[in-house]
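Notes from hallway chat w/ T.B., transcribed later so I don't forget. T.B. wanted the structure written out for a chain they're using in a teaching module, and asked if we could keep both sequence and structure tokens in one place. Agreed to drop them here.
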Amino acid sequence: LLWRMEEVCGVKTGFTKAAGRCLVSCAEAHGRRFVAVTLSAPDDWNDHEALYRSVLDRLSEERIVTAGDAAAEVPTVYGGTETVVFSEDLSIWMTPEERESVEIRLYLPQMLYGGLRRGDAAGTAEIWIHGRYVSSVELRYE
């Protein structure tokens, strides 16, 4: 498997009475790590390769946020609002199913009290996929 797929970075074989032949492997691609485990599988090496190919062939790089795009409006004590923007671009390699479950959680003050300048840190945007934290981007005042 290590010689058949450049993404595969580790393999461990084993055997137990209960599970029979065991194969565990790991592949890395686009900053993500994938693990496959088979127990008592007669064609385990080919099964692992097929599993990895089925996932890796479906990955595409998706833009999640774009630097300068508005993330939110935060109220000020003076009755107005301040625009908060994403500080950088963020793209993530993912499957179409993961793209459907992307959630952006914003962590910002509830109210602004003045003295802010454009570009000052405002908070954080966290990216979650299927309920799991993936990455974050700093938010800045516009």
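Follow-up for T.B.: Helices lie at 44-56, 96-100. Might be a good example for the class.
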